[in-house]
């Protein structure tokens, strides 16, 4: 039985006007805090979103760090002897500690070579803790119970920005026997919460900027123009200028230069109603269909019926009676059955999303049938939206 498409509605309300908010912001810090709390607690329009949820500001970003190291203390689940890079790393580490070893006599079953990844905020200072992800590089079967040896974390410029070390937290396990295996989640990837310590800060002073660049996650000219209008109205001047469909340049008002945190805290909470192109997203692997709010269909007649063909191969065996001297005869046969559903024409037309959902439900088709219908409607020019198949 096919489940019908359903619409989801949310409560609508109104928030604090941005101009009033910025007026209070420039009055006193006490009134600013009260106004900011009122803005967060006020009911919001169901279609409105905050700027910080759909865009990013220049300078407010993370930096990716990577590193290569060794995990020790494993219970026989480390890399095998064929992992030459693990053996060489072990030899180099021991020699740096003043211990001379023979590579041919080493057994790395309790050691695993790993790759480390971490994200360092631009505001991180020396001493800041980072979460580190540890992933096996060789043929280790599990990192459970391991401890990471001190490993430097480098940026894209090759400089060391943090050091990582500590016990691993693995969210799964893997147990293997002679004839069976049990596994939960992935045991070759682990986390070290707070296992990285920043040693070098990124040379960037946020408050020293005299202008900002705002980049939209989903480019759209209407949304960009709306952001510019709301920011200029809130600041009371022409400070924001559109560059393209995804970029807005913002000149910092003189009152906030050298103290941009209050300005950023208020700008990122300005609410707008994003506008996007009509889109239908289809996931054929799971049969999921997502219809955008602005999707429309022209008046069109649709008839959809399933054709089911069943082919069954049989082997008819004829066996002679006992002591008859005959032989067994095998006769192959094929049963072919074709069944086609008879469906009437249905006239579909959707001026709103609710009408479109009701029209598609009236066909009585399942999700995968609707995928075929939407494709055919797009080919006929009746579906006014971009059809994206993932």
Write the layout of secondary structure elements.
Blueprint: H1 18-25, H2 29-41, E1 49-50, H3 51-54, E2 55-57, E3 62-72, H4 84-96, E4 112-121, E5 129-136, E6 147-154, E7 160-167, E8 169-170, E9 173-176, E10 181-184, E11 189-198, E12 211-216, H5 221-235, E13 240-242, E14 247-251, H6 261-267, E15 271-272, E16 279-283, E17 288-291, E18 296-302, E19 307-318, E20 329-340, E21 346-350, H7 353-362, H8 367-379, E22 383-384, E23 386-389
Parallel strand pairs: 16-23
Antiparallel strand pairs: 1-15, 2-12, 3-4, 3-6, 4-5, 5-11, 6-7, 7-11, 8-11, 9-10, 12-14, 13-14, 16-17, 18-21, 18-22, 19-20
Helix pairs in contact: 1-5
Observed structural traits:
alpha+beta; single chain; 3 domains; six-stranded antiparallel beta barrel; 390 residues
Word description of this protein:
Helix content is 21%, strand content 35%. By secondary structure, it is an alpha+beta fold. It has 3 domains: 18-59 and 206-272, no CATH class; 62-198, no CATH class; 279-307 and 341-389, no CATH class. A hairpin with a 4-residue loop joins strand 9 (173-176) and strand 10. Helix 1 crosses helix 5.
């Amino acid at each position: 039985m096919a489940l019908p498409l359903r619409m989801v509605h949310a409560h609508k309300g109104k928030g604090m006007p941005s101009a009033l908010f910025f007026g209070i912001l420039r009055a006193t810090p006490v009134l600013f805090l009260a106004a900011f709390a009122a803005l967060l607690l006020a009911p919001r329009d169901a279609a409105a979103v905050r700027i910080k949820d759909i865009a990013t500001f220049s300078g407010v970003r993370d930096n990716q760090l990577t590193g290569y190291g060794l995990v020790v203390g494993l219970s026989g689940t480390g890399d095998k002897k064929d992992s030459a890079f693990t053996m060489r790393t072990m030899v180099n580490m021991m020699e740096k500690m003043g211990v001379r070893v023979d590579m041919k006599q080493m057994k790395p079953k309790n050691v695993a070579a790993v790759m480390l990844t971490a994200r360092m905020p631009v505001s991180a200072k020396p001493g800041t803790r980072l979460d580190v992800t540890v992933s096996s590089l060789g043929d280790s079967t599990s990192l459970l119970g391991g401890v990471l040896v001190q490993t430097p974390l480098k940026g894209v410029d090759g400089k060391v920005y943090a050091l990582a070390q500590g016990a691993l937290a693995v969210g799964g396990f893997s147990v293997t026997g002679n004839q069976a295996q049990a596994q939960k989640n992935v045991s070759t990837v682990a986390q070290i919460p707070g296992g990285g310590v920043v040693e070098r800060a990124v040379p960037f002073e946020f408050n020293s900027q005299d202008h900002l660049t705002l980049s939209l996650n989903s480019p759209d000219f209407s949304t960009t123009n709306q952001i510019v209008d709301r920011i200029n109205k809130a600041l009371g001047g022409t400070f924001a200028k559109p560059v393209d469909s995804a970029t807005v340049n913002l000149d910092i008002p003189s009152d906030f230069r050298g103290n941009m945190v209050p300005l950023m805290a208020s700008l990122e909470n300005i609410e707008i109603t994003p506008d996007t192109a009509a889109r239908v997203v289809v996931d054929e692997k799971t049969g999921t269909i997502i219809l955008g709010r602005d999707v429309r269909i022209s008046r069109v007649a649709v008839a959809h019926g399933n054709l089911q063909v069943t082919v069954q191969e049989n082997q008819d065996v004829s066996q002679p009676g006992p002591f008859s001297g005959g032989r067994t005869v095998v006769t192959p046969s094929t049963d072919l059955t074709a069944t086609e559903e008879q469906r009437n024409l249905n006239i579909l037309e959707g001026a709103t999303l609710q009408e479109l959902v009701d029209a598609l439900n009236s066909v009585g088709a399942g999700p995968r049938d609707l995928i075929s219908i939407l494709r055919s409607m797009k080919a006929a020019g009746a579906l006014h939206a971009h059809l994206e198949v993932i």
